[in-house]
C-alpha cells in the first residue's frame, strides 16, 4: 500500500469518526430537548407594547417573539421613528433596547415627549458596564430601567433613579439551537468575538499550543496579537452572521467564551470603572446550541450555571489549555456537560422567561 492510499484511508477514518461524533452529539441534544418542561407562561398581559430595537438580531428576535406571545400587541419600531409611532399607536409601554450606538442625536427628547403623552417608558441596558458614561445620563429619561449588569443597579439608583431592576440576558432558542453541521463548520476549538486586549493576551499565550489544532477564530482586530502569524490561518477577521455563528458553535467540540474587559480605555466608555459582574449573551447562546463552553468567570455565573456540571470555567491561559486538552480527549464527559448546559438554558434562560419578569415589574395602571 503506497503512502497516498494510507493517507486517504486515514482521512476517511478521521472523517467517519468526525461524522459519527457529530451525529451522536446531535442525537443527544434532541433527547435533551424532548425532556425540557415547557415554561408555564401566564396569560397574555393587557399591555400594548411598542418595542424599539437596537439591531442586535440575536437579542431583538428573541425579545420580539416573547412580547408577541405575552402581550396584547407588540409593535416593532426603529429608533428614529419612536415618537411618531408612539403618537399614532398610543401603546401602554415603549420598551427600548439599549438606547446606544444606532440611536440618533436628540433621542432622549423623543422619550421625554412620549412620557408627556402619558405613555410609560422602559429601557433594557444590555451593554453595561461598558458605556456607563452614556447610560448614566440616558437612564434618567425613562420611567423604568432594566440592566443585565448586576454591578450597575446601584449606579442608576445612586444618580437618582427609583425604579431599577436587574434583568439578565438569555438565549433565543429559535436561533441558537442544536443543528446538524457540515464538515466546513467542524473544529476542535472555536472563538467568535472581537480582539479586546484581555482576549489577545490569552490567545497570544496559547498560540503555540493551538497552531497544530483545528481552530476557528473570528472577529475584528486580531492582528493586535504578537503571535498573530502562528494563528493567522485560523483567523477570519470579519463579522459572522448569527446563522453561521450557530453552525460554528454546533460544529465545534469546544467553544471558548472570554468576557470583554470593563476598564475604561479605547474600547469602553466606563469612566467610573464599574466592574463587569454579569455573564454575556454568548454564555447563554453557546449553551443553547448543545456545545461544551469553557468560559472565564463572572461573579453571577453560578446563579445560572454550575461549573463542572453544565459549563466549564478557567482563570488563566494555563488552566484553559489544560481543560481544552482534557476535553478534546474525553468525548463523553465533554458531551455530557454540553447536554446538561442545553437543558439548563432551555429550562431556565430564555427570553420568554425574562419578559415575564420584565412585565411583572412594570405596574402600569
How do you describe this structure in short?
With 365 residues, this protein is α/β, with parallel strands linked by helices. The protein contains 13 helices and 12 strands. Helix 1 packs parallel to helix 12 (331-348).
Query: Mean of residue pLDDT?
Result: 93
Task: Please list the strands of the largest sheet in the order they lie side by side.
Answer: 2-1-3-4-5-6
Strand content: 5-15%
Q: Which residue ranges are poorly predicted, with pLDDT under 50 across at least 5 consecutive positions?
A: 1-12
Specify the number of helices.
Answer: 13
- The succession of helices and strands, N to C, reads HEHEHEHEHEHEEHEHEHEHEEHHH
Query: Helical proportion?
Result: 40-55%
Distance between the termini: 81 Å
Rg, Å, rounded:
22 Å
Number of β-strand runs: 12
Which class best fits the helix and strand makeup? alpha/beta
Overall 3D geometry? Answer: globular
Largest sheet: 6 strands, parallel
Walk me through what this model shows.
- The chain is of the alpha/beta class and about 375 residues long.
- The protein is about 40% helix and about 15% strand.
- The chain has 13 helices and twelve strands.
- The chain has a six-stranded parallel sheet, with helices on both faces. Strands 9-8-7-10-11-12 form a six-stranded parallel sheet, sandwiched between helices.
- β7 (about 185-190), α7 and β8 form a beta-alpha-beta unit.
